Amino acid sequence: MDIEIATIGGYEEVGRQMTAVRAGDDIVVFDMGLNLSKVLIHDNVQTERMHSLDLIDMGAIPDDRVMSDLEGDVKAIVPTHGHLDHIGAIGKLAHRYDAPIVASPYTLELVREEINDEGKFAVDNDLVEMDAGETMAIGDRCELEFVNVTHSVIGAINPVLHTPEGAVVYGLDKRVDHTPVVGDPIDMQRFREIGREGDGVLCYIEDCTNANRKGRTPSEAVARRQLKDVMHSMEDWDGGIVATTFASHIARVKSLVEFADDIGREPILLGRSMEKYSGAAERIGAVTFPDNLGMFGHRKSVDRSLERVMNEGKENFLPIVTGHQGEPRAMLTRMGRGETPYDIEDGDKVIFSAGVIPEPTNEGQRYQSEQLLRMQGARIYDDVHVSGHLRQEGHYQMLDALQPQHVIPAHQDMEGFSGYVSLAKSRGYTLGRDLHVTSNGNTIQLVE
Amino acid sequence: MDIEIATIGGYEEVGRQMTAVRAGDDIVVFDMGLNLSKVLIHDNVQTERMHSLDLIDMGAIPDDRVMSDLEGDVKAIVPTHGHLDHIGAIGKLAHRYDAPIVASPYTLELVREEINDEGKFAVDNDLVEMDAGETMAIGDRCELEFVNVTHSVIGAINPVLHTPEGAVVYGLDKRVDHTPVVGDPIDMQRFREIGREGDGVLCYIEDCTNANRKGRTPSEAVARRQLKDVMHSMEDWDGGIVATTFASHIARVKSLVEFADDIGREPILLGRSMEKYSGAAERIGAVTFPDNLGMFGHRKSVDRSLERVMNEGKENFLPIVTGHQGEPRAMLTRMGRGETPYDIEDGDKVIFSAGVIPEPTNEGQRYQSEQLLRMQGARIYDDVHVSGHLRQEGHYQMLDALQPQHVIPAHQDMEGFSGYVSLAKSRGYTLGRDLHVTSNGNTIQLVE
Amino acid sequence: MDIEIATIGGYEEVGRQMTAVRAGDDIVVFDMGLNLSKVLIHDNVQTERMHSLDLIDMGAIPDDRVMSDLEGDVKAIVPTHGHLDHIGAIGKLAHRYDAPIVASPYTLELVREEINDEGKFAVDNDLVEMDAGETMAIGDRCELEFVNVTHSVIGAINPVLHTPEGAVVYGLDKRVDHTPVVGDPIDMQRFREIGREGDGVLCYIEDCTNANRKGRTPSEAVARRQLKDVMHSMEDWDGGIVATTFASHIARVKSLVEFADDIGREPILLGRSMEKYSGAAERIGAVTFPDNLGMFGHRKSVDRSLERVMNEGKENFLPIVTGHQGEPRAMLTRMGRGETPYDIEDGDKVIFSAGVIPEPTNEGQRYQSEQLLRMQGARIYDDVHVSGHLRQEGHYQMLDALQPQHVIPAHQDMEGFSGYVSLAKSRGYTLGRDLHVTSNGNTIQLVE
Amino acid sequence: MDIEIATIGGYEEVGRQMTAVRAGDDIVVFDMGLNLSKVLIHDNVQTERMHSLDLIDMGAIPDDRVMSDLEGDVKAIVPTHGHLDHIGAIGKLAHRYDAPIVASPYTLELVREEINDEGKFAVDNDLVEMDAGETMAIGDRCELEFVNVTHSVIGAINPVLHTPEGAVVYGLDKRVDHTPVVGDPIDMQRFREIGREGDGVLCYIEDCTNANRKGRTPSEAVARRQLKDVMHSMEDWDGGIVATTFASHIARVKSLVEFADDIGREPILLGRSMEKYSGAAERIGAVTFPDNLGMFGHRKSVDRSLERVMNEGKENFLPIVTGHQGEPRAMLTRMGRGETPYDIEDGDKVIFSAGVIPEPTNEGQRYQSEQLLRMQGARIYDDVHVSGHLRQEGHYQMLDALQPQHVIPAHQDMEGFSGYVSLAKSRGYTLGRDLHVTSNGNTIQLVE
User: Fold this and answer.
1) How far is Cα C122 from Cα B209, in angstroms, rounded to an integer?
2) Using beta carbons and an 8 Å cutoff, which residues of A are at the interface with C?
3) CATH assignment of A220-381?
4) How far apart are CA A225 and CA A251, in angstroms?
5) What pLDDT score was predicted for residue B47?
6) Residue C223 vs residues B150, C157, C182, C254: alpha-carbon distances, Å
7) pTM across the whole model
8) Does the domain spanning A3-216+388-447 belong to CATH 3.60.15.10?
């Protein structure tokens, strides 16, 4: 059976991920993501009503025109987890394919919202829920399996397409986490089995986000311990404390909620995304928050909630808000500008439980947000965080477990691939033979 | 009573700390340290037999000639903890003063070794042990108190000289750690009392090592959790694992020893300093290691021990060795060069449970050490570590607790002071009035 | 005679410079500048109609309330050159003092525009023109002298107040440039004389912008040679070339204009500031541009000019525009956004004859501007530039020439001072005695 | 005719360059270089007497065993210029091939010295001199041409192999310099012709050293102007001045010699490499130095020369010495350690007319050398230099001139290639199709 990989998007950038695997006549598509930075660089662009081709021209969504070169039928669209760079183009592209969208429960819940928010296209693909550990048939001879992985959002899986020529493992995005705070540990046992059963692994497509960083990405348990250290150190503070993190990072939000309780404060989730992601997690039963945990997304209810905080005393609350990257219209930035009912006062603490995404525009906005907070007297605790992506030792462990015949680095540009290429070369792979450095819009024929 | 501070060493550098406080006719000296980098830049310098004046000219030990300007008698020499930059000049300078050396048990044990190693001068000052929480009289009207603090070595205290004009708190070196793994948490309660009792705090001398870094220095418990994550992730590895850390960092060594046991390996401490610091800690009962924990310092016994490791199988051991900064003659670097019986092989893990001290010579050596290890196939896990020094939020907490009338930044150069000066200014201090940026060899008259 | 220095603004930042020197009953004020970044961090602030006190609270203009502590009369307000951080607060503060504004011709021309633009206060101080090399009496016993210096704007001088106790030299802003392209070389000869005549130099206030940088700031002739190299290398390009630089940098604009001619292109100056600064320079005869050199500031005339460029062929023109820091509303950024009649096309060259001011917000904007240009196919030539401020070897030369009794670092924050303090210490100065590290709002009594 | 490229060395590093081009049965080898850093990381390795295979195992010289896969005869070995990373393995590898070494006069002179110094192998290949602009036949149907280029050493050429399928242009190492101080400008005219004549360019192999840097590498004329600025600024200094640069950088040495004369000092070249490279340049008539210019390499004659300098007064001389990277045994480092007759005294100037090669070991050594010099009072002028390698706009110009069908980035590792890949992609090349990112030991079949 001939096997071909189309590297559609996310091979020259982080964002707008999309990869197709053709096994004989059957095609599976992994991810349909959005590159948000390509949207934000323009003033006043509203993507909801834009046409796919315009978004492709902007570099915002994958250029899936290469799909017409693949001779076969798409049997499934498989988003690996609920981050926008993996599901954000579903509203624009999925309707072109007569295939179900297959995802883990939490991811599927977010895909559902994505489709609802879409204003241009009607997306009526079937939505099929599949859990980690489960499989489904793809055509007559292939099988799709979800392996549980650990990432900075719950419900992340690595899909595996079992073909007669061996398994194709789509390895975006994960870290090797044995103590992930919410959900199950990464299923390394299953990866090792896949590497050794039948014909083993034909091809492994890998998340190179942190491939230039030495060592091991720490577990979420380490971030939790660090966060506990920070928040417990504030136990005696009788003024305001505000925390911000990735809204989709349910494990982190859960830790914030629990440590708020430890130090005698009522947590409240504020901001549209906070409400969206935590609401979805609770709805599907992936996490249990305290019964009375407030989540507010609309401006009015947010303001009302903050007025209550001011009335009852800031020392009794922990607002958990959006704005960890200094996004100009997010809650925390607006707090910094004095545009909300919450007054930042001298000595108030602001916890950034997030890293700064290393891109100059972003760094500038984050800096500005911190400056505005500081000008009002806030004390900044930053980088209380660990990444959700493998560093080099995780890559090393994955290669050891899977022993793939072919390797394709993804989820970065050439500079980002460089550390991975060195590592793979040291494990015996050869560039251009079984180590495929490629770019958007290419196809790689693995078996002819 | 007139109070005067002499800033003798460590006010233009990290290293060779020495400060004297005169209260009326009584003088207390805090620290007598060594700046090792000023020794190492020269080839083949042996400090043991050198004269004090030559070492002063090299910038290696404090220039204590300014002491002759202070009219009074030295009543005590008080090293705050056992690091070389705080006790390393005692062998060269203490004999000039007719005063006892007063220190916590672990520090005193290390001072004793320092004095024994000294080859030029006979140091026969009395050695007086004093625990955190205890006090001793200084002259008729003053009192010396030790407050327990947490640092990257056990037995660290902040000495406080209570005078009729208020307390002088010597704040080098510490972090605010409530869960320090070994020993007691920092005694913030006592600092708050000192800040509020009697005339409060006249002067606070502060450790500015990390004063340019935002946020809070994590607790040792966070480093321990991170180390656990790293070591447990190696549980299935059946080859060699080697770890290195600061030999004096007893809490870290203890964690390494315990996690070695968790993953079924026998820990062994190797290298002269490893034997020295851990041996001293065990001798005074500050830490309990497993009965059979091997500690070897001399070349021959180290080699014999590594031969045993090679014979019985590397997969059964965790050598904990010196060399975390890539020091050319340390154990780990010699392992990298293949100069020991231990073979580094493809896939072997090396854990650096230490940060890189940011100085180009040092960075070059550390890089070279890693390169040598990598050339043999080693996998590097670096920076499994937290600093022992306060960042900005710790400084903020200390100012809040002590509310000192005067503040003197120390343990850095001007660039290192800059973050502290900004912070102190934001707390209402004024440069040149109650915030004293100074340099080596000055005196500051606080009360006339 | 008692001599006192008030360090009013620009001692904790670059921006809002202001220093007063009192000699007996006579006071001279040096500079009244604006810190533009403190304005821009807020949305939609219009400074023209704002009150001084609000701008002081924002940190945008110097807090001159300390002037009431100085017992004496202001005899002159002396802006040293025409940059906003030195003259931008004149409209808000000068009317409070019954004293003439004394400046070199070009600086005075720009002060005049500053006063005209002021919308809140009527500023009717006398405007007195004084050239480098000239002097004026200040009270009975002092004399003000202007020494010619070289900076990134023409007409820069260092004012010297000769007092019976020695000279006070106000050393902001300059580099040691013996071949400055426009204007005369720095008058090092006169500085050496001042250092040796009479009582020598009592006090030197120094520009520390680049005091942490090793070596020597190159001459403008070096930037010119580099610019020539860049522009001549484009001789064969038959598409668009656009250049941007500091509008006030007349020497650089002149070089751009001349090299445009070398490669057969007609230069045009575009943008409000381009018109303002170059117009002023031509008006006072400081520079001669080709007769037909177009300068357009108003939106309509700019657009008309660019339409002409597009009609007659981009290959015949060199637009020299504002926007070197990526300012969101400047010409070049608007070109990048496609908001002007000028089309950036594949292969077009954009020359940034300017460094990036190292501040995250600014770096973010500059990056975004370059991205927008690149997305249209532009090729970026950046950093064709040398700084206008002394590096360490220039400071060394100035201390050698002046041999001042007292030194006060300025035009930076504490971190920025650190390199200067090291250097001054190595020349024999002592912190707190004759080397005065201070902050905004302090006074230093030099002679009592 | 089938055309194949073997990428033997220098495709994963800077150093040990070697590439073979097979056109039918004829093979031409470009460069045989040494990676010195792989030698220096070991203690006490002497390469002169080492065997090739050991050096290959160390990664020090190219692993040319892939040559046995190429079916054809080597007709010429063509070193492009005289730097060690291009000629340093000739002594170890050339004797294996029955082919002449063809090089420009200066390069050939240095090859001759390389062969003489070789202690293990007898290298008796014919040495054939060929100038830029000349050609020689390779087999029946191909022709080798040398195109003049500009680099940081004189005599650099880009060899072009004209084949029936188009030209293969080997583009290492160069910058686009129209005013190179010594020698002719780069022959861009000829490159444009080659790009357009016959079948055009089949393949271009490019030097990616600076491919991640924006803009244009300045001409040597810019470095010369900057050096003039630095040295003329020292005209009044009556103490010592010492300069260091790359010994092989004849243009820079010439500028140093001339500016020494401008400021009334006698230049002397000191150090083994200084004597070697300048001597060779003079011998072949590539440069004319003043008749009495001293060049001393041997320890004794160097010491004698420095004694003369000390006797006749440092203010009359400019020693131009080795040691620009802080190499531990080079002249300048020994001066810093006080191991030569030359006393560095307070205020003496040291000019580093060289950049720091960005590798941690190297940065550490350079830092240490500067520290030693500073400890004796030296003032450091660093980075008076421009690189010899193309930045992005040079690459853009070369692609424009040559319009090659295939492009192969070289002279870097994957991270270094990344900027070039982006640039080539923006010019329409596709990774894996006509843009070949490869590594050491691969072959690329261009025409079958």
Assistant:
1) 50
2) 41-43, 337, 359-368, 371-372, 375
3) 3.40.50.10710
4) 13
5) 86
6) 53, 21, 13, 12
7) 0.96
8) yes
